[in-house]
Amino acid sequence: TAAGNRTVHRPANLAARAAMVLRDNDTGTLVTASPRLYPHMWSWDAAFISMGLAHLDVSRAVQELRTLFSAQWHDGMIPHIVFTGDDDYFPGPDRWGTDDAPQRPHNARTSGICQPPVHAIALRRIIDTARRTSEADAGIAEDFAREAWPALRRWHGWIARHRMSEACGLVTIVHGWESGMDNSPRWDAPYLAVQPDADLPPYVRLDTLKVDDPRQRPSDDEYDRYLWLIEQLRRAGYYPDKVVETSAFLVGDVFVTAVFALASETLADIGAELDAPASEIAELRSWAGRARDAARRSCHPETGMARDYDVHTGTWLDTESLAAFSPLLCGGLPTETEQRLFDTLDGPGWSGHPGLLAAVPPSVSPHSGDFDPRLYWRGPQWPVVIWLFGWAFEQRGWQRHASEFRAQGVHLASDGSFGEYYEPFTGEPLGSPNQSWTAAVVLDWLC
Ligand code: 2M8
Asked: How far is the CA of 81 from the centre of ligand 1 (A)?
């Protein structure tokens, strides 16, 4: 069937196509983030991909996380990219220069930063899916949860130790890429302080060659800053404390903080089911509590919208991005503030904007001066972020919002192209087609 120019697939057909994307992008031990643009494993993509895979084959799903965790750094960090042999991506491992870092894993080449810690959430989802499927699948998932527990604890411990900022309590990031929302207007002000000098080694971008329209990607000026930060990280030898001391970009990220709170609580629940030591569970819950408090304290006193914090300038960053709703992921707000946030989210500046094809929030409010409906993290809708909010709503007992996000998310993706992101008014898929995490969350919505 077709709605206007847009093809619309029925659910069964859409699920079959999503499964095909995951199979096509599978190299055997990892599913690449997308076929051409991202031919490697990304940390938070892998988490979402694994829970999509759980609907096809639970053993394959746990293998995905196993591959990622086997590239964990000795200090506990889960790196943001695990490189495959393919060198068709920039910056690749040579540019990162992580081979010289003593903390790096010896069996894999990786980048030297991290991404939002959604992995415990994926594990939870895999266990729940497997338990619904069969006893045998439940056994596979639970055995893996026991196997993965130490790695996940060390990962959360790394964040708690090195990234919970004394200045604002939020989890800090040292590169916009660590937020997962690379060129979001959230980072415009902090990036002004990142001034590449003549020492920036020359480079050639590859990403802009792999999308239909390079204007859907960050600018060259932004890439200079991204690469300059890598130069600084490299010079700091990727030692976590030195990195935090020397990076020109140091920002408390309220979205990562809320994800960390939610994932730490989720991991603690998994630990309780596995009879993990009480002290380890309590430690996770205390990290969750600290992160939740910090997310709450970030909220603007009048609007209730959550904010990031620029540690170098000591300023709160007010940006009309989806991250402003982060406390809804982890809780901790007074009921009134929470209600106000929901009203804003449902209102005309967000999901309730009358022009949207699907009633789910865009990455930036269409009412914001920063909004660009076609530009990456500056306006398009991202199914994967919608999934995360929807899942959290379900956990928190907000079933109506959860099922609304699911139905509208499916509607957005029903053209079957599994775009990386979508133009919110027309539903045109943008960025990479056949993006694995889009296929994975659509599969999860449909199963
Ligand atoms: C995008 O980021 C990478 C850099 O990490 C890139 O632009 O090359 C982001 O959307 C990020 O959140 C995502 O994990 C990655 C792979 O899908 O692509």
From this structure: 9
List the CATH number of the domain containing 368.
1.50.10.10
Domain, as residue range, for 135: 2-446
Q: Which two tokens stand for residue 288?
A: 């969750």
Return the best residue to mutate from 21, 36, 42, 259 for the ligand 1 pocket (most ligand atoms within 8 A of CB).
42
pTM tops 0.90: yes
Q: Which helix (H) or strand (E) holds 272?
A: helix 254-273
- The ipTM is 0.98
Cα-to-centroid distance, 180 and ligand 1 (Å): 6
Inter-axis angle of helices 399-413 and 436-446, nearest 10: 130
Number of structural domains, the chain?
1
12: number of Cβ within 10 Å: 9
Which atom of ligand 1 approaches the CA of 207 most closely? 8
Q: What is the total residue count of the chain?
A: 447
Alpha carbon separation from 360 to 44, 53, 145, 227, 414 (Å, rounded): 21, 24, 32, 33, 14
Pocket-forming residues, ligand 1, beta carbon under 6 Å: 33, 38, 42, 44-45, 80, 177, 180, 182, 207
**pLDDT tens sequence for the chain (447 residues):** 445 678 999 999 999 999 999 999 999 999 999 999 999 999 999 999 999 999 999 999 999 999 999 999 999 999 999 999 888 999 999 999 999 999 999 999 999 999 999 999 999 999 999 999 999 999 999 999 999 999 999 999 999 999 999 999 999 999 999 999 999 999 999 999 999 998 999 999 999 999 999 999 999 999 999 999 999 999 999 999 999 999 999 999 999 999 999 999 999 999 999 999 999 999 999 999 999 999 999 999 999 999 999 999 999 999 999 999 999 999 999 999 999 999 999 999 999 999 999 999 999 999 999 999 999 999 999 999 999 999 999 999 999 999 999 999 999 999 999 999 999 999 999 999 999 999 999 999 999
Question: Would you say 326 and 257 are in contact if contact means Cβ atoms under 8 Å apart?
Answer: yes
Which of the residues are catalytic? 182, 420
Please name the residue whose Cα sits nearest to atom 4 of ligand 1: 177
| Ligand 1 atom closest to Cα of residue 432 | 17
Q: Choose one of 177, 233, 434 to mutate for the ligand 1 pocket test, by most ligand atoms within 8 angstroms of C-beta.
A: 177
